[in-house]
Amino acid sequence: MNEELTAPLWLLSPLAVLGAALMLALVIGLTLQRFQIPKLYGAVIAGLVLGASGAGLIDEALLTQFQELANGAAALVLFEVGRKMDLAWLLRSGRQGRSLLLGTVARGGAATAVLVLCGVPWGAAIFIGSILIAVNPVILTSMVADENASGTSTFATANMVGVSNLVALLALGVTLAWTRSHGIDADTGFGAELMRQGGKLLLGVLIALVSYGLYALATRLCKVPATMRPGLLLAALLIDLGLCSVTAASALLSLLLMGVLLRNAEKRDNVFQAQLKTAQDIGYVLLFLISAALVDLQQLLHGWVVLAALAVVAVRIVATRLALATATAWDERKKHAMALSMCSLVSYGGLVVDNTLNAYTGLDQASTALMSALLALNVLVAPGLTWLGLRLAGETYRGGTP
User: Fold this and answer.
1) In 3D, which of 371, 353, 374, 400 has the Cα closest to residue 71?
2) What is the pTM of this model?
């Protein structure tokens, strides 16, 4: 054996490092769950210990090798978000649906205003504000699954996650087109860049329709029983994600649409959730482990940055709560709970789903630092607030009891 190899052999294998990190996250998470602490914090602890804020074993270079694995996990999460969207209910719910849409827009607008007050340039503030429209699907869906949550507010919150991600994606397309067309190295105008971003969305829709059509055709030609359809559906999701990857189409829109089609167009019994629940649970942990590993807690050591980030988190919650005031389907307690449950945010990579490791580099240094602080707070605080919101609504049934 080469005597120059002083590190343990398992450290030389990126797959072993990731596997060890995932095992550590699951062990810690399952232990915490016994004490009524959200299981997702196991991924937080493991990511912070092994990632940029700790030992540095998990970094962007290592995670880049497993980007397709992370994309596959994201596909399951985004598909599940789309599968929870009930278009018929959203269209007929009246002021309830309007309050959810208003809350979605209000989050982005309020966050943008706070960012401007904190000294962030208007262009960067609007760009970051468009990202802050969205609610993090990993956090909410993981908490709902762990707590076995169900009820009127949980149902509405699940719908709002899908709506918020779609609205954020559309807003980001416009702001990204403006930012790129007005940059120093810009070589295209706003109209051309906007058409390019719109083309990505349209292509994502077409890929979703083709992938879902392949799934529907395969299951009907073979007369596949319900218990066998999840395998074909998973294959269709991978086709969708792969085609989006090679064509630079909007994977988020495409995968959400796949879920929406299964929920609203498929009339046969659906057993997908039951068959792949374990895979989805592991996907939640893996994605959050990656997020936590890339967090640099030093971003929270700068006084103005952390105060500004806290102000943005708080104003997003308040804006959501104010928007829900006009709704009549939920009492005051449930409205408070929904506002807390929708406190989480996503990264730029989480919205475009092209590479979750890369952030948009067109921001100035101060804006980048603030966005990094927001993502750090999101990892540390959002799972707990989301869990508290679900508990406050009185719709959690862990172990069969509320």
Assistant:
1) 353
2) 0.84
- Which residues have C-beta within 8 Å of that of residue 61, sequence separation ≥ 6? none
pLDDT at 109 over 70: yes
Q: Which amino acid is at 297?
A: L
Tens-digit pLDDT profile for residues 307-344: 988 999 999 999 999 999 888 888 899 999 999 999 99
For residues 272 and 231, the answer to whether their CB atoms sit within 8 Å is: no
Q: How far separated are the first and last CA of the chain, in Å rounded?
A: 58
CA 390 – CA 386 distance, rounded (Å): 6
The structural domains of the chain, with segments of one domain joined by +, span: 77-281+317-393
Any idea which residue has 């699940």 for tokens? 158
Question: What residue type is assigned to position 188 of the chain?
Answer: T
Helix axes 40-50, 14-34, angle to 10 degrees: 140
What amino acid occupies position 265? A
Q: Average model confidence (pLDDT) for the chain? A: 82
Which residue, among 330, 357, 268, has the nearest Cα to 69 in the 3D structure?
Answer: 357
CA distance linking residue 119 with residue 194, whole number of Å: 27
For 86: left if phi > 0, alpha if psi spans -120 to 50, otherwise beta; the answer is: beta
Q: How many CB atoms lie within 10 A of CB 103?
A: 26
Can you tell me the distance from the alpha carbon of 114 to that of 118, in angstroms, rounded to the nearest whole number? 6
Q: Give pLDDT, residue 1.
A: 43
4-18, 38-52, 330-344, 370-384: range with lowest mean pLDDT: 4-18
* HSE-CB for 352 with a 13 A CA cutoff: 19
Q: Which residue has the higher pLDDT, 363 or 380?
A: 380
User: Does the structure show a pLDDT above 50 at 357?
Assistant: no
Of 5-14, 48-57, 144-153, 164-173, the one with minimum mean pLDDT is: 5-14
Give the integer Cα–Cα distance in Å for 92 and 100.
Answer: 13
On whether the CB atoms of residues 148 and 396 are closer than 8 A, the answer is yes
Tell me the angle at which helices 152-181 and 251-264 cross, rounded to the nearest 10 degrees. Answer: 150
Residues 112 and 109: their CA atoms lie apart, in Å, by 5
**13 φψ region: left (φ > 0), alpha (ψ -120 to 50), beta (else):** beta
